[in-house]
Design the sequence.
């Protein structure tokens, strides 16, 4: 199996007002390249902490997390930024589009971060927007788009720089059933291929059918990994 | 990323205008109040500047500023004329006399007596009449502001504006008739008293009888004569005080600076303006950053470095600072232009632009620094919080 992510004995503890809360308590998880892995479980079980560590935006206290063979904890800060900028795409529950930028400008942000010229980046962004069905709306500001359209812009932003890993945090929870279904179809059809891995945190049981595997978490542990293929 | 920074800044028009307005206010206060202060202080020596022609002013050594008249004997004039390097030396009378007006009221006036033969030291600009008309019997020249306002004839309408004096009208100075033969434009003085020019001999007749009535000796140096050397020579050979025009202006200016409450009063206004401006602009800019923290978090998560975010915030601060500064300075200039013909003192030298520019820069740097700290400490994992 060609591994995208390998987590071994991951531990992460938060200090909340003098009280220690263990969010990850010895997590072991392998995610294959080209796989759509869903992390599910009750609130506070550690799902978001786990994808934050996998995405390299949070450091674990103990254990090892390798993404495409790179140990992010050992990386220098600048290298980690570069790694994220080139290899990771993000899709958020609240879309997190920059409200002052139009759809094309929002989608072009990862390319600009990677050093591409603005004009070229926006041209490429419009092409990606066409792939997600929003080619006509590239000039629209986020507030002029529906929730589903905003999430499609966010997906285009996560795809535009061709990352090898896309992490999604509750991508459908702010959307109605039909729109959520459409967004997941889009993610599976456009985002997923043999060299790109998707890790999705969700509560939404209606989208479990899209997963290749589902890892159930509880109290900082992975209690079960179910293969749904 | 600069483009993104600017779009983020201007995306919320209300907040953007709020930050710019805060900085405009700070810049306005930091230029307008010092401009009024500078204008007021320049009026303390405006009489010296107006006289213009002489290189050196000679006076009693105890004189502290231009209106602190300690008269000399007329013979001092001849002693000064005898100093080598002096091209010419002319007498000048300057004193505060009460003028009896058309309707019987009295008004204190600055009476200036000029050398009868040369009329050196006269008003800088004649609006009506000629300075030579002072040689006519009982002739005096009054300044336009005095003629229009304090010396004006009462209006026929109760509460109406005074009727300006014109050539041919008369006043009484120390019970002696003074006929207006000219109207001049002079720079307003600190006390804003009307200025009346006449000849030296006539001024002496208007003044209360005293043994000494010579206020100043105005000296022109010979061509090529070093002024510092000449002032030293005059001091040594006459025992009088001798100052170049610039030195006398400084002496007067410093007297007011050290012996009046004006600098501290204006200093407090400027300081308050700075603090209020800094508080408004700093707070609004900081709030702007706080509200955009999630957006900065998203950029950070996507791989934007702290250095790039710092540059983005600095760019935003520089932009709002420049616009606020420009608007504030522009409003101050407009204020000065609008008030140019009023009693308000206003002077806007280039140094004030530097001063307020430095003030606004400090506010922006302060606002940017507190915002930058917040963004640098920001955990990018914030983006996954609902």
Sequence:
């Amino acid at each position: 199996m060609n591994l995208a992510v390998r987590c071994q004995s991951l531990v992460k503890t938060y200090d909340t007002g003098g009280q220690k809360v263990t969010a990850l308590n010895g997590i072991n998880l392998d995610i294959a390249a080209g796989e759509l892995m869903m992390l599910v479980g009750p609130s506070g079980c550690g799902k978001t902490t786990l994808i934050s560590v996998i995405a390299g935006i949070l450091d674990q206290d103990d254990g090892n997390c390798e993404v495409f063979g790179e140990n992010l904890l050992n990386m220098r800060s600048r290298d980690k930024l570069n790694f994220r900028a080139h290899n990771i795409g993000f899709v958020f529950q609240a879309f997190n589009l920059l409200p002052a930028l139009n759809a094309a400008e929002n989608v072009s942000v990862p390319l600009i971060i990677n050093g591409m010229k603005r004009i070229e980046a926006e041209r490429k962004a419009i092409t990606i927007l066409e792939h997600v069905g929003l080619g006509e709306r590239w000039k629209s500001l986020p507030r002029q788009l529906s929730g589903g359209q905003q999430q499609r812009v966010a997906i285009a932003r996560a795809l535009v720089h061709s990352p090898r890993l896309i992490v999604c945090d509750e991508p459908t929870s702010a959307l109605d059933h039909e729109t959520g279904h459409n967004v997941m179809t889009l993610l599976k059809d456009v985002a997923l291929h043999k060299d790109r891995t998707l890790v999705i945190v969700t509560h939404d049981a209606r989208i479990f059918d899209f997963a290749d595997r589902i890892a159930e978490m509880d109290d900082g542990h992975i209690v079960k990994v179910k293969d749904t293929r | 990323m600069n483009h993104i920074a600017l779009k983020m800044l201007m995306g919320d028009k209300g907040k953007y205008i709020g930050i710019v307005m805060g900085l405009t206010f700070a810049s306005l206060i930091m230029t307008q109040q010092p401009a009024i202060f500078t204008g007021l202080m320049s009026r303390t020596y405006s009489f010296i500047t107006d006289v213009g022609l002489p290189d050196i002013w000679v006076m009693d050594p105890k004189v502290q500023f231009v209106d602190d008249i300690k008269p000399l004997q007329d013979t001092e004039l001849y002693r000064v004329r005898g100093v080598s390097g002096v091209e010419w030396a002319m007498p000048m009378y300057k004193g505060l006399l009460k003028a009896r007006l058309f309707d019987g009221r009295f008004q204190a006036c600055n009476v200036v007596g000029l050398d009868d033969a040369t009329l050196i030291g006269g008003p800088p600009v004649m609006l009506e009449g000629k300075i030579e008309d002072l040689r006519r019997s009982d002739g005096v020249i009054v300044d336009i502001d005095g003629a229009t306002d304090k010396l004006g004839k009462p209006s026929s309408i109760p509460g109406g504006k005074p009727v300006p004096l014109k050539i041919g009208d008369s006043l009484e100075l120390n019970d002696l008739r003074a006929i207006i033969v000219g109207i001049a434009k002079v720079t307003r003085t600190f006390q804003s008293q009307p200025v009346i020019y006449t000849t030296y001999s006539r001024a002496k007749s208007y003044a209360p009888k005293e043994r000494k009535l010579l206020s100043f000796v105005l000296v022109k140096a010979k061509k090529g004569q070093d002024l510092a050397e000449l002032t030293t020579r005059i001091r040594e050979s006459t025992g009088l005080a001798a100052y170049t025009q610039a030195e006398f202006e400084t002496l007067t200016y410093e007297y007011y600076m050290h012996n009046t409450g004006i600098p501290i009063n204006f200093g407090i206004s400027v300081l308050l303006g700075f603090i209020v401006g800094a508080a408004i602009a700093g707070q609004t800019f900081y709030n702007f950053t706080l509200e955009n923290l999630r957006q900065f978090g998203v950029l950070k998560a996507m791989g934007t470095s702290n250095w790039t975010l710092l540059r983005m915030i600095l760019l935003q601060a520089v932009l709002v600072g420049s616009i606020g500064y420009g608007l504030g300075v522009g409003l101050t200039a407009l204020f000065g232009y609008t008030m140019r013909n009023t009693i308000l003192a206003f002077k806007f030298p280039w140094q004030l632009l530097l001063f307020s520019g430095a003030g606004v820069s400090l506010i922006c740097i302060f606002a940017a620094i507190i915002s930058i700290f917040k963004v640098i400490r920001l955990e990018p994992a914030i983006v996954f919080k609902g």
Q: What stands out?
A: Chain A touches chain B through 32 residues (CB under 8 Å). Chain A has six helices and ten strands. Residues 100 and 141 of chain A are 7 Å apart (CA to CA). Chain A has one domain: 3-227.
